[in-house]
Amino acid sequence: MKRKIEIIGPKVHGVGYRYFLMNQAMFMGVNGFAAQNQLGKNGQQEVWVIIEGSKGPLDAFSTFAQTKRPDDAEVSDVIIKDFEGFVPRMVDFALILTAGQIVKAIPIIQEIKGHTAETAESLREDRLVRMERDIQAIKARLGMP
């Protein structure tokens, strides 16, 4: 049995919806799962979910998707319909989703690395200035030029 769930609203992207749904689907015994963000009509955000499994877990997950939301999500409609087509295994989707999040993080990590290098250089320069000042103070106390 397969279903497609469309979650529509002004704010369903960037709130962790796909992870939220995947985690629950896993614990409910859904076998196949995939979710993707879409831009819908009139600029509405949408999350499309396809699931596969036996009737009990799919019914439970469908109810969950209709009634529960991640914090900060704003949902105006949830549409559930039968689905014909390929549904990937849960583990395959989890790997793809994780890889996608890592790719998003790479520029941020590179920026942090750059800032870290700049900060380290600045600290080295500050330390050198303090050391030179301390050396001059010691020389002055010892009467050295």
From TrEMBL:
Domain Acylphosphatase-like: 2-97
Pfam families named in the record: Acylphosphatase
Family of this protein: Belongs to the acylphosphatase family.
Name of the featured protein: Acylphosphatase-like domain-containing protein
Gene3D superfamilies found in the cross-reference section: 3.30.70.100
Domain of life according to the entry: Archaea
Leader peptide range in chain numbering: none
